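Quick one: structure for this chain?
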Amino acid sequence: MRDAGELLADYDDYLAVIEQPEQKKPKSTGSKFSMVTAAMIGLIIGISLWIVPAAPVPIPSGQLRYSLTSNPISQTIRSWIPDAPKINLRQDFRMGLGDWTGGNGSPVSGALQTDGLRLWKPTLKLSDYQMEFQTAIEKRAVGWAFRATDLHNYYASKITVSGRDGSRAEIERFVMMMGKEYDRVKLPIPVPIRADTLYRVRVRVKGDVFSTSVDGQVIDSWRDRRLRKGGVGFFGDKGEVASVRWVSLSEADGFFSRLFAMGFIVHPMYTMGGVY
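Got it. Here's what it folds into:
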């Protein structure tokens, strides 16, 4: 038999166990964090949808004016961006070629088809910018101009496809001054480019340095100081045909500008007064 002392000791141990305070379970923060994250994503998506301009409407080109945005919220947010572009233009040719000069063709199924040199009038007094366009080469080549002050003074580049299977590609560039061509250079392209395939071309014009990339890969970079300002355009020499689906131009190429580019695309606006 156990004596009284052992029983009292066991009883004291029992009391110590039952009187011990319960350990507090750590609060779960995962669910709250997930809710906050979802709310932030929803807010960003909502603001983006609010900022993005509506689809263009068929307005006669003579009544078009370019405005940075018709949304005051977009204007406010844009003012907070350190490297926001001063101008950002985009055209998909669904409303014709009223803002273009030169050439002798017309849009085909919502695309510009290259022929003689055609310049985008709202860009002709600019100097530094980034030009992007989506194009498909139908016959031989697609050509574009930049720093063009008129139809006789501009820099020109051209992507040409050749070979039986159309898989060999080259880039050409030259300077046109007073209607005379200077310094034509032809180089092979380190990426495969085929006819009848859509490509996205980006041309960056900054100071005296010009670079060209296709689908994100740089294919050419060079420099020249003869032409200081001028706009962009497209051309096709004899036997060359390409279709351009859309073209955009901006004056900045910083991180914040790319991040918010979808909200600050300039779109044609119908205005009763002057140019905004």
